[in-house]
Amino acid sequence: YHMGLASMPTLSALLTFLNVRLGFWIRNPKERSRFETPGLSHLLREMTGVGMSEKEPWLNLSDGGHIENMAVYELLRRRCKFIISIDGEADPECSFHGHLTLVRHAQIDLGIRIDSTLEDLRPNPASKFSKTHYMFCRIKYPGEDGKPGPVGLLLYIKLSVTGNEAELIKRYRLLHPDFPHQSTLDQFFDEEQFEAYRQLGAHVMASLFSKPLVGDIEPSTVRDWFRGLAGSLLEPVEPARKQTGQLTAEASVTNPS
Known about the structure:
A 4-stranded mixed sheet has the order 3-6-5-4, sandwiched between helices. A two-stranded antiparallel sheet has the order 1-2. It is globular and about 55 Å long. The protein is of the alpha+beta class. It contains 10 helices and 6 strands.
């Protein structure tokens, strides 16, 4: 039911009545409520979708994924400077459905452009390995009066294998060629499957803090970490665009706003 692009208003009341619900009511920490628990009015609001607001004393917290599955849309709406997007969708065709859905809605709804170059994330047809696990993207927020707005940075991490993972991951992938894009309908991982995904995640994140990427200085803030990563991962701005006042790769890190 109230699921953004997949909304089905005619089923909302029935599914709520049957308690087939995706949300949970929590108290808004910024607002005071006279009631200790949500009441009948909240159930009616959930059934009809009327009065659902983040400014109310009680909030309906959902599992998300109703507009885009990366949970980045609201961060863009708030014009965040540094964003980490982790794409854990099952994507055996490597179509980047989740990320490109975000790119499309950001452009249409918010006027925000996300420069994405995803070729190195696509697996080689012969080896089935990707060149990298992640990609750095510039976020171009709209300015006023047609002028260029502030620039943010998005670190996009894709579920992928590059061939330098631990032996446990290599063995599991040999036995299960669809790894790491096994169907998300399987919610009951056995021990080996769980450990393969855990080790892959740890491998990817460890590499993002390695000296070849961030340099010799251990980053103490997100800004420092992004600055180090941008120096290694962010594609430079074309000379023609530098002359028009666009931020260079270095400037977009040191002062993305």
